[in-house]
Design a protein that fits this description.
Shape of chain A: globular
Number of helices of chain A: 18
Strand content of chain A: 5-15%
Oligomer: homodimer
Order of helices and strands of chain A: HHHEEHHHHEEEEEEEEEHHHHHHHHHHH
Radius of gyration of chain A: 24 Å
Largest interface: A-B, 95 and 95 residues
Number of strands of chain A: 11
Largest sheet of chain A: 5 strands, mixed, barrel
């Protein structure tokens, strides 16, 4: 059976030592954030994730969700009770508005806890995760009445939330969306259409399910400018605000998927279901986009989380499995063979995964702090610059962390040899579960296009310039620091690659957008590699200052490993970007 | 439902135009090999693979194998009949000895057909594939009586074969093997022990199953020098050579795996089963190793095959799925959106996969011809140099082609967005099935170690030197060819990387073997990248000479794509290799 231990120590190191969360005490919800408080909260989160969520992960995968003929869906054994525990611990509403029962703590802390819960049980954590997303949407766009009606029950986990965007013929291209909303006399709408890939669309965990649904009001403009967002409860609320009559929305089927078996992925049929417009008519996509950054950061965290839990299990196996001898002579001569962790290639693999994990974790926390600043700062300028920066980082977080997270799960699985392929060992599940994170919430190719096509050029490239300024400043400040030498030079080289790539994109992507498209995924990875390089340099700086206890020495070794073996990939990415779209676009479609 | 069309045209191009199979007419079995014959055989193979094997692939995955309480195992519906068709078509015994009913055709042709059958139905093709492996072992090591007793029925597919190596505590490290062989008065042995991960160990397809089993004769030396190989039939043959009494070998359970569900992966319990020594006592590993090159080439082909079928389905989807508009303006203005194949990133992805497929296919055929030369040449020196070269190439074929083949399946799956994650679309199966090829027949990390630790230094590095000689000669011969310029320069650059890496290994791997271990996987990939680069240069040369029909123009575009975007990775691999083992080995095991 696989196991999991939440990385409380590393998370505390990041929050307290590297990013110094105490300095943000002027932000709402950050007032009590000191080292002790952070560790106490993370410790409690670790406890429920390790003790309650994780043990349900493998059985949940094996049992899966089941749909009955009446359209009801049962989740795996224990999920309902675990969900109750989770919400009663306050974890669902950790950063939600205290006026509606939330804890109002930093979003950054919620992102940290999100890593733990996703690592412990990704399929489970999607139930509260999607609910938190729906809460955020209603919080920002809902009327006071809508907030009062829905938020307290959702934050308490009595009701859950879902997102209904995709239709059979449209995923990425929401302009083709067909679900209709017909105005009714009472101001509500009758929603009719079919949505697919609706995670947690139906389940037996909560009393009511609050669907957020994109639909087109009759007579609305075509394309994305005619899409509105609606609240469609599974049970329409009665006059006391309790679940009343069953609404015209039902689960038509559930998907047989590669992974996240324990999360129900539903086809949802809306048949004149009562829906309530949320936000402005025809501005539904804007409403969705507000949540997009956090939702995508949430998926990025899933990539990291699966990589972390896969790493932990691979390490345990590599220490336990004895097979062959070290190349330099027996290390455990008293045994029939050495544990496979003596082998350089096993270590190279494990270090590749771990250097990603600890770099990516820093990247997530660094970015989440920007999200808190973007939403909670009292300085409008600070809100804006952080919002812009977060917008730039979001596709990189989502695309890079989930691509690499998946690759890492595959590498960790490989450490198990044949046992990695057997389901009961659990490694296959990490791979299968991690796979979806590259696809949903905007497939990674779309993230890359969002990065080069929208985020990069916004406001004359101000966010990218600010990032270069920050990294450049760090490099300058540390140029003379002898201890930082192994980190400054490689980071500088990769920052140069990124600058050349950005320049190339500006010069060649404008004249021919296919050049930008052909470069997009390589640019996203170049960006991610550099971002993690910067995160490692920041961590190395702190580790050097904290002196040479074992943990800090390990940090420095990991930082060196990242610089020596991972970061140099930026050069290759630059080369590919500069190859341009010529060859890529030169074949007629029919010869593919 | 996924589909498959065997690449008969590309295979014929390789066999006839690039590698000119006619020139080998002096080798046994090659006499009739001309372009028409090659195409006729490939066409027939394509037919059975497309029409009979492929339709069973997805249903076979969903149904899987089932073990009953009596230890019998049922394969999915249709497998038994399909197997009959396959063997009656002569495909199992394509390159087997005509004296025992085989067709005696080139192994190269069998490798080509193996790609088709693996692509059409990997789990199915393992039943004949493992039988062919067992046939080869008996052919080389069996006594005349053993050959006469087993080969005709196995080549006819009336009986099947399996390989029993792995035990619960030993996979890679066969020195730890515990299965016992106790001599009996009649010259046979009583075999007792447990084997795991035995593919096709039990099934309902054939009348008898001929297990080849590694075991230790009582009193044999410890370690790998005390291992012998035995034939253990499921039913002991009666005096007429027909299946008689049930032997003491049974399937204890079957594994619940990530993929290849339709191939039974068995725990085999041997309880005093009657076994017959094959080859010399205590030389069992040598006997196994003789088959190793071909078995590993077979697995390499699985990586290519899954990549090919995944590519084909991704292309079909990319042409069919309309979503969004081309960056340069609508390409299908009459439709609601453009097919996604208009997007540079979709094309980049598809071309990455296809440039691999057609390069890897050439690499397989080039290598398979060396196998034929190694076994069928009448010139002892030619046999030896080809055997040595094949030995060098084998770990690269197995490791590189299966690593990349899997990655390619993931990329092809990604083209489907959410649909790629749904099992009924079939893309998940290609990913799940391809995953095992990186693990079995020696995990890819072991292949890399075999490459740098054993194959590279053999005979003073003669095989590598010969390879450098061949590639260097080609580069020199084509240096002045204007049309070859886009291919010669990048290939030269990567050949230099490979030379530097090899030099580095020689200088640093001797003094500290951990340097070789830490470099091994990067070196294997560098080697594979260069090998495919050479294959693309060879194909480009022929394509240029054949003039500019559409297929040849496509070849040249793919060659350019490979040179521009794939091959440059050799520089990164070199950089990683030269990073050495220092950082990799510097952490104590307990901080992992």
């Amino acid at each position: 059976m696989p196991s999991y231990k939440a990385p409380v120590g590393d998370m505390s190191f990041l929050l307290n030592d590297v990013f110094k969360i105490e300095q943000y005490s002027n932000l709402a919800g950050f007032g009590d954030m000191n080292a002790e408080m952070v560790e106490a909260i993370l410790g409690e989160a670790a406890k429920i994730c390790e003790e309650q969520l994780q043990p349900l992960n493998l059985p949940g995968d094996q049992e899966g969700c089941k749909r009955k003929a009446d359209g009801s869906v049962t989740t795996p054994k224990g999920f309902k009770e675990c969900f109750r525990s989770f919400v009663e611990g306050g974890w669902l509403g950790l950063s939600a508005d205290p006026d509606f029962g939330g804890q109002g703590l930093p979003y950054t802390l919620a992102a940290a806890v999100n890593e733990f819960s996703s690592a412990a049980n990704m399929a489970f954590s999607m139930y509260p995760g999607l609910t938190a997303g729906a809460i955020a949407a209603i919080q920002v766009h809902g009327s006071p009445e809508q907030k009062a009606a829905f938020l307290p029950k959702m934050i308490a986990g009595t009701w859950s939330g879902t997102m209904n965007l995709t239709e059979p013929h449209c995923g990425t291209d929401l302009g083709q969306l067909r679900t209709k909303a017909a105005p009714k006399a009472d101001g509500s709408y009758a929603i009719t259409g079919t949505k697919i890939f609706i995670s947690a669309g139906e389940q037996d965990i909560t009393e009511n399910i609050i669907h957020l649904v994109l639909a087109r009001i009759e007579g609305a403009p075509e394309g994305v400018k005619g899409i509105s967002l609606f609240i469609v409860p599974k049970f329409v609320l009665d006059k006391d605000g309790n679940p009343g009559t069953r609404n015209g929305v039902a689960c038509g089927s559930i998907e047989h998927k590669m992974g996240i078996h324990a999360n129900s992925t539903c086809v949802m049929n809306f048949d004149g279901a009562t829906g309530y417009l949320i936000g402005e008519a025809n501005k539904g996509l804007n409403a969705m986009f507000v949540m997009m950054n956090e939702a995508r950061l949430g998926v990025a965290v899933q990539g990291l989380a699966q990589s972390e839990v896969a790493y932990q299990n691979a390490v345990a196996y590599a220490k336990d499995r004895i097979q062959g001898r070290a190349l330099t002579g027996p290390k455990a001569p008293e045994k029939a063979a050495d544990p496979i962790i003596v082998h350089p290639d096993v270590r190279r693999t494990l270090l590749t995964v771990r250097a990603f994990n600890e770099g990516a974790r820093a990247f997530v926390i660094w970015s989440a702090l920007k999200s808190d600043l973007a939403h909670r700062s009292e300085d409008a300028k600070e809100r804006e610059t952080n919002e812009e920066m977060l917008g730039l980082l979001t596709p990189v977080l989502k695309g890079f962390l989930t691509d690499r997270g998946f690759d890492n799960c595959v590498m960790a699985q490989q450490m198990f040899g044949g046992h990695g392929y057997i389901e009961e060992w659990g490694m296959s599940q990490f791979v299968r579960d991690a796979r979806i994170a590259m696809i949903y919430e905007g497939a990674n190719g779309i993230q890359a296009l969002d990065l080069v096509g929208r985020k990069l050029p916004r406001k004359g490239g101000a966010a990218l310039m600010a990032l270069f300024g920050e990294v450049g400043g760090f490099l300058k400040d540390n140029a003379a620091d002898e201890g930082m030498k192994p980190f400054v030079a490689p980071l500088q080289a990769s920052a140069n690659h990124m600058q050349q790539a950005s320049m190339w994109l500006m010069q060649n992507g404008m004249t021919n957008p296919d050049n930008a498209g052909a470069a997009s995924v390589d640019y996203m990875h170049l960006f991610g590699l550099l971002a993690l390089g910067y995160m490692w340099a920041l961590q190395a700086k702190v580790a050097l200052a904290k002196g040479d206890d074992e943990a800090m020495k390990t940090k420095l070794t990991l930082a060196r490993f990242y610089m020596e073996r991972v970061l140099p990939e930026t050069g290759l990415r630059l080369q590919r970007i500069q190859a341009g779209a010529g060859t890529v676009m030169s074949l007629p479609a029919d010869v593919f």
